[in-house]
Amino acid sequence: MWLRRAMFQWMAPSAFVLPVWILIGWIVSDAGGWALAWVLFIAIPSVLLGQLLLTFLVRMRGTVRHSRSLSWLDVGGVALWHLLTIAVGLFVQAWFWPFLIGATAVYLAVLWSSLWQLFQEARPSVLLRRYTAPAAEQSPPVVVLQERRPPADDAF
Length: 156
Fold this sequence. Notes:
single chain, 156 residues, mainly alpha
């Protein structure tokens, strides 16, 4: 449970930490000018917006808000995506494209998984089964009041 809660806490800061890591990785690896253009105009905005969207979709689910922890499916997918993003930020020339393609594919899978889990939880039958208490055995008595008026005299 601690890992699922830690990942819940990590989701928002990672939207800012991972893009900074990609920039630091470019600086450390001395990848070149075209790589800097890719980092500034494609990598940083896509990782920032992608992580913010993923965080928003995951935190929209009622079970995540209630337990303040991610599902195991989320933990595995997000962890794998973050590891691949970190690997892309290392700018190892031999592995750059496989890591980039893998990170993109894993992100799309995690995004689809998050949407699927959100729609599964949004169905009324699931919500009613999870969060409503069982019906009381006896219902409270119902009192019906009727007002009766005497018939009006039509004679003058």
